[in-house]
Amino acid sequence: MAVVLGAAPAPSSEEAPDEVPPAGRDTLPVDAFVKILGNEVKNPGDIVVGQIVNVLVDPAGKPVGAVLDYGGFLGVGKRRLAVSWSVLSFTKNGILLGLSRDQLKNFPDYRDGKDAVLATTPAPPG
C-alpha cells in the first residue's frame, strides 16, 4: 500500500459524517429591533449623553446592565459608567437614559475585571 504525504484517507462509508441540517431562519422587520452597541443614549432632555459600548448579562443571558461611554466633549472628560438595564428605555426615537447628569455626577467609573456598580433608579424618599 502506498502512502501519499499530505493526503487524508478517504472516509469509508461506515465513517461518513452525519449530514447536518442547515440553520433555521427567523426574520425581524427593521422596525422590530434596536441596535445596541455603538448606539447613542439620550438623557430625559433628549440630549445625547453617551454611547453603549457593552451589555452586561447574567449567566442565563438576560441583560442586567449596559456600559456607557458617558459625557465628555471630543473625547475629553469621557467616563465609563455601568447603568442598570431598567433605567434604559428603547424607543423608535432612540435609547433613553432615565437618569440625569446630576444623578450620575459622583458615580464610580466602570472598570473591566472589577465588580460592576450599576446606576439605578433612586430609592423613594423616607
From TrEMBL:
Pinpoint the PRC-barrel domain residues: 35-92
Which InterPro entries does this entry report, sorted A to Z?
Answer: PRC-brl_dom, PRC_barrel-like_sf
The protein's matches in SUPFAM superfamilies, at most eight in alphabetical order, are given as: PRC-barrel domain
Entry superkingdom: Bacteria
Q: Tell me one Pfam family matched here.
A: PRC
Please give the residue ranges the record annotates as the region Disordered.
Answer: 1-25
Identification of the protein by name: PRC-barrel domain-containing protein
